Amino acid sequence: MKRIRRWGPGLLLVSPSIVLIAVFVYGLIGWNIKVSLSDWRQAQPSSGYAGLRAYRDLFHDAVWSLDLRHILIFTVVFIVGTLFVGWTLAFLLDKGVKGEGFFRAIYLFPMAVSFIASGIVWRWLMNPAPGDRETGLNAVFDHAGLHFLVNQWYLGQNWGMAAMAMPAVWALSGYIMALFLAGFRGVPEELREAARMDGASEYRVYRHVVFPHLRPVTLSALIILGHISIKVFDLIVAVGGKQLITQVPAVYMWIQIYDAQDYAKGAAIATLLLIGISVLIIPYLIFTVRSERNA
Amino acid sequence: MSKIIPGSRTRLALVAVLALVLVLPAAASARTKSSTGSAASCQLSVFSWWTGGGEAAGLTKLIAIWNKQNPTCPFKNETVAGGAGSNAKAVLAQRLAAHKPPDSFQGHAGKELQDYIKAGQVEPIDFIYTQYGFDKIMPKQLISQITYQGHLYSVPVNIHRANVLWYNPAVLKKAGIASVPKTWAQFTAALDKAKAAGVIPLALGEQWTQKHLFETVLISTLGVSGWNQLWTKEGDWNSAGVKTAIDRFNTLLAKYTNSDAGSLTWQDAGKLVADGKAAFNIMGDWQDGYFSGSTAGGNLALKPGTAYNWAAVPGSDGVYDWLSDSFTLPKGAPHRDAAIKWLAFLGSEKAQDTFNPVKGSIPARQDAKTSLYGPYLKWALQQWKTDKLAGSLTHGVVASNAWNAAIDSALGLFIQGHNTASFQKALVAAHDKNAS
Amino acid sequence: MSTVAQAPPLAAPVRKRRRRRTIGLKYVLLLILAVIILMPVYVLLVTSFKGVIETDAAHAWSLPHLWSVDAWRQAWTQLSPNMRNSFELVIPATLLSTMLGALNGFALSKWRFPGADLVFTFFLFGMFIPYQAVMIPLTQLLTNIHFPTGIPSLIFAHIVYGIPITALIFRNYYATIPDELMEAARMDRAGMFRTFWSVVLPISMPAFVVALIWQFTSIWNDFLFAVFIVTDPSQWPVTVALNNTTGSLVTPYNLQMAAALLASAPTLVVYILLGRYFMRGLMAGALKG
Question: Helix or strand or coil: residue B424?
């Protein structure tokens, strides 16, 4: 009884949130799964059971395969790109430079601009017009003599989605920089000093003392970026509209629900997205729980 | 590691702020309640996606007339922009599902409204037609094409034409194109000449404009009756005619259009023609509004007939590929009487002749005052009197939303892979799944 | 600790020269990256000062021939009525959700109970739900529980869906608090709320700032919830007004870009003001994981 009195208040404190999440997240996920198994395919709700029809439809859907390919390319380029840029910026700022606050504000600013707005600008920058209509970044490249960099950007048949990831990298790098910077600085200076005392070069200090400390931060960054990437919608629509050439699952889901009004198919896409996301976070959770137990 | 340690005063401040924060939403909520007022006062809430340009201007004029005529029931303009109505449609779907409909909402006349009709979300308004004589003054073909199972569900405010060929006379002259093409053969010949002259033969924009182009090619190839037949249950998408149309469309995409089409809006494509960088562009007649409208509204202010000119899409002279913005009567409209008055107003000659010259379209009624309309619209009004009507696919007349989405997918895949056979198969499948 | 290899220490002047060169190189790289990152902002700014005639993709890079503040004036007219709504939305939503996150994070890390990790996982998964798919049942749910419509409903939705990320931030931050502090409070026979108030809350500022910045940005920039949950156009936050600057036919780019900059100004101010604290919050382990 005494033990319950110890932790009872804690449980009580989080119970309202548990109820809210249970209703507004899991309740809706449940609703979503139910709809995906139903035959609701027009404006009028319908609760007949249709089994895995919607999932089977998606499996045979050439558009869905294309969406998956697109989101995969986008995710990889986005995550790798943002981690790389963010890390580099943090690395450069780590030792402290004059005007760090100024640089930090600049790098963080892109996150303040919503994708709906920055999408338009990036559309202009990534303009693929050829020849004398050339503009945007292509024009800059040609003027700078970097002709090999001129390309079709998001209209590229096979790798267009890699270009689409650029605005996203631009927007999130600053935040990831901040994460890594904190990670770098979270390494106690004593540890670094001790290594230096032992005669290690700066390179070795970084490699053997600092970088191992960054693993948890990297994992957090991966989770945050991953969940943004899989749900990405605003950016895609702002740059490429709902065209198939840049379509991703979240856009297809919107089309199915609000344009085609095949609610079952839309719900199936949402469920598959959730499953895909789980693949990302379950390793994180296992890692967290295990590392905390070890601590 | 320095952690900021606020003292007890800071903590009290935090609590005070939180307390204040709980008050703000209550204030906002109170403001909402007072602004929506008592149930007795009347407000006509109309939902549309007319947020800019000539449409917003035209709507503003209508609102002014309405408010003057109905001071006790002022107009409440509810617009959501984005995606040619895509956002608005989504929000509308949610409101209808939640049984919180506006008093009236905009929709394309035709099958696009079918989903609402089938879901029982709109009321039949045949009585408005008979009471105000719309059934007599609007073309019979039009009325029959928007009748669903014997009933009418919307009042068309305007008519737009989709099968228009826009061209730059100077460019045509430079390329040695003597006359505006009237058949497919003449068209390809003209396109070849344009290509040889170093301009873009046919300016093209993003995916939906390509669907628009495909639709006009289909109509030109199949003719009106062939086109209308496609949308029935017996429609044959496997026919040789459809195959020819697909091949022609493929030729256009492969040989005669600009490579960066996917990054251009319909205006960007039009501008290529206006700037002399392209010879032709196929687009609906809102292109005229863009070409000739004032620069203040972001238009080009060009002289119709000199800086640019128009004709029917080659092979479709005598066919009016029409679409129409219309308004409905939702079931459970909060102010039903006002809504009915609104619909009656929209179908009136005054409303249509006020709205359409500004918007850049022609009235659905046949008694338009021609003098109010610009040169292109005068031509369109002429054609409207005699042409046969073919409803637009891209703009929701002949196919339901689901069917349109299926065609979008098929078209998207075709644009990527250029496989004409799979395209035709996918179109057949789309028909079989969605025709009714 | 000395697992690093031995290398002969360099002479002091050599090290100093090398350090100056490194710092110089660093500045160059930082500046180059800053310029690259600011390029789109440049286009936004420059376009917003152009008249409608000059505004198109072909002239994205050029400075205006005729500087004009028309776009800004129009953007202000279209957006300012909604700014007030945005503030009415963001301030309560951010503060309340952050406070809730602090309480949740505290309970999940320092006043644990059996299954605390499970509950945390339970919360975290909530971050990943694709909102577009559930907008219709969500709005119906809000109607069914008769929650006051308009901005209050929107605040409520943001608080609920902010539970996962704020819990994540605070839980990870509080995990770095040494257990001795908690033990000391327990020795003084302090209950949960007293411990929170006098021990934990005073040192929570960094985490608050991290959470505040994230929540402010997401809630301020949110479009989807706003447009679905708030049906009265006069109640719409600024993001919906921003979206509505897209004409349905002709898009006035200069207006859109001015509006975009206007809409992102408050967020930028928040970043600048709280930027310093942001760094300290992260250093203390808010998102270290």
Answer: helix
